[in-house]
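Subject: for your reference before the review

Hello V.,

The reviewers asked for a structural picture of the protein, and I figured it would be easier to keep everything in one thread rather than splitting it across files. Below is the amino acid sequence we used in the manuscript, unchanged from the supplementary table.
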Amino acid sequence: MRDIRNIGRAGLAFSAMVLLAGCSGFAPYRLNLEAECIVSAAAPSQTSEACRNAQLEKVPAAGDAPGFEVAYVEFTDQGWLQSREQMSRAIAQALPRAGDPRPVQLVVFVHGWKHNAGFDDDNVRNFRIAILPPFAKRAGPDVRTLGLYVGWRGNSIDVAGLDNITFYDRKATAEHVARGSIRELFSRIRVLSVDKSVSVVLIGHSFGGLIVFNAIAESLLDELVRAQDGAVPRRLVDLALVINPAFEASRFEPLFQVAMHAPRVGADRPLFVSITATNDSATGTAFPVGRAVNSLFDHEGWTDEDQCPGGFTVTGECPAFERSLRLEKRANTHTMGHMARYVTHDLSRPGDGFVECHMALDPPVVAGAAPALSPQAPEPRNQFPLWTMRASPQVVDNHSGIYDPALWDFVTKLVGDQVNVNALCTAPPAR
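And here is what came back from the structure prediction:
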């Protein structure tokens, strides 16, 4: 028995050593604040070693896409700035320049799980290659495009396979980041938008979507409440977008409730957009399973939104439906992109053509499902201020396949006051 215990202790010690050896570093990646780095989006490996930790990169024009710059701001696990000077320099890059009267387009990207601000990180490369060029191309050479990559420690273990166990740890870290100094960064960006006429696009992927949403949700709620009194809601940024967001729909529900009761005033285009792949196994399968375990001891009750057809009992129960179908339960264990209640639009890509956007067609209510689980967003959905879009695998493939050029060409069309949402997103195709 003693031998077994010793073997067990040795196994635990070995496992701990493996985890510690695979623990990713805590230091920031982008503290070379003085470097003047030219980075080819197509061949970044040719960049000098000194540029690999540069805070600012300059990407030259390629083909018909104008050049652009990329700045970096990083945060600790507790949501503190890794370097205030890093943020100050990033904001300074978006200010008007002497001798360069061009307006500025600022595209902010907050990465998700398993990523960071390292030079060779897949998200960093694709920010340069896939996301920024379409924005620079649509804006044209008369607009200066600046990308701002927001880095945090999305990967805490650099061991293949073992990094999957960090889901809840990194989710908690993302929530710390969302409550931290990133709120100051976003506030400074909003000041740029209002006072300096800088066009701002704010994008978050996966846990980065959680960070973006948590950081702006209160301001969004304020604007939606203002709209209930007939005021035109003020846009926080030109476009606030989350892709395959990894957070509970219950966080989105308060915004949805207010938007449902706000008049369609000045909603020429959405205040907030969410896009979720229909085949996203991370948020569609793993997330609800994990949340079902994680929320095992949470109490979710029936609400008046559940519209119990047979009437509630004196104890507040709805005997006609399974308790697992309660709206609050579903919203606590699923992301909003996987709940029909919130869906407003569908994105598809027939053949190799452009992305097509259609207002969502209400599916038939599933027998036995609580009524509140069916689509609830009001018509006309193009004028609803909160768009929740489902994307076919040809547009967004699973959780990380977010870099199709057709997707970003579509996203760029949502930016700017001249967009005609009724032309961009049409009625659902006939069945």
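For the response letter, the relevant points are probably these. Confidence is low (pLDDT under 50) at residues 7-21. The longest strand covers residues 144-151.

Happy to draft the paragraph if you're swamped.

O.
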